[in-house]
## 1
Amino acid sequence: MKKIFIIIITILFLPCVAIANERFIPLELFTGGEIRDDQEIRYTSADTIFGEKRRKKIVGPIDWKYPGTNEIIKVYKRTQKNKSGKVRKTQLFTVTNDGQCMGRVYDQRRSGTKYIKNGCKFPLGLWKKGETRTFSVTDRGARTVELKILSLGKKQTSCVKYNWKLFDDATGKKLADNDYKFCKKRAMTSLLIRKIKD
């Protein structure tokens, strides 16, 4: 009888354990906006200055026409200034991969301007701690993004830390390996960039 009781408790308890490590990551964690209680991805208003030196800013949503097409999409504009206050980097982000990511569609900096399709830079929606997903991206050629959740928290307002890797599909070479952390009303709070060896 004792064994049957243990089996029944185990069967009832296991689904709770699986769900406990999963949570909804809202778009507002990326933008620094007010986080809602529902689990719907919405383009809510953002106007956030963030970063240790307060040189980064994200605003939106705004309508943007993808070059060479008639497609108009909603984007958030993220800028970063240098020491003298001049904008040195501008990026545009939108919801991608069927609501699984915030991804870049435009990136302009000293190294040049590029347009990205199906980008993925930030996890959205339901994710589990330790979960890894891969995404096919067009970013100066065919690329693969690998995104892994490192720490998740239990609430929609909890910080999220994750690892983001970028690979070249033609060679299999790793091009980037970064850890990001985003927190409530602060947007990105930390970034660890690992140097890639040739």
Note: The chain has one domain: 23-193.
## 2
Amino acid sequence: MILQAISIGMIVGFLFYELVGLSPGGIIVPGYIALFIDQPWRIIFTIVIALLTYAIIFFLSNYLIIYGKRRFLSMILISLIVKWVLESFIFKLPVVNIELQSIGYIIPGLLANEMQRQGIFPTLLATAIVTILVRLILYLFLF
């Protein structure tokens, strides 16, 4: 199921990018999010981590030279750190269940990188559209 979701996500994401000109958050992001569409808190938490990563890199770019591959690697590393800090803090709260996690380890970093490149709203909109299309295709052909 994971292989099919990622493959379909790559194809639909590529076609969407060619037609509309907006990247859906990275090459594997829509496929992974489509797998977790029935767990909205995981998707929201992933977006929160991506937004925090975006804000941290935006702040750091005022003091450091961050562009190209440095920016991409910084997005991935900062998102890993933010995920680790938030999840270790949240899991210590007595009222939070185990489902409050992000999707994957690099998905928030990929989202944050695309948010920096093309804007927050266009990236989230493109990701949502492609994710829904991927999930519909999965329903049609695999269930």
Note: Helices lie at 2-20, 29-35, 40-60, 68-90, 107-118, 120-142.
## 3
Amino acid sequence: MEQRYDTTNIYCQFPQRIGIFVDVQNIFYSAKNIFHSKINFKKLMDMIVGNRHMIRAIAYIVQRSDIDQSGFIDVLTRLGYEIKSKELITRQDGTAKGDWDMGIAIDSIAISEKVDTIVLVSGDGDFVPLVEMLKAKGCRVEVVSFERSSSQELIKSASWFIPIEESLLL
């Protein structure tokens, strides 16, 4: 069943101001593992924004030296996403480290007083304390992700959960 949600602020005649924070790796691998597909980032943004006013949309990317993501980054930039990128770190023991959890947390806290709603595009349960803190500051926090790969705690902590459906895939 498709969830519908109101994208207007019922207490104000002006559209909600939103900030969008996309954990690209989380969403990319969820789409790949669940649907063997890729996400349509234009449709994703259109669905999230609706008739609201987007203040900022940031896509957080972890790059590997052996994969050229310049075309993908160009597409995201043309769609209106700011890009924050870092290299995947490979440790001496062979394990790898590459996530943007702290960056997403810092950026969303920084903008929280300038927006009505923070939209977190990730299913990562590590964001539960962030969601709770943003809500305590008075922000509405929407989580957009694939339900099958999302932390149940994250879904429960959100003001609203919007599942990514197959219609948003390429």
Note: Confidence is low (pLDDT under 50) at residues 1-11.
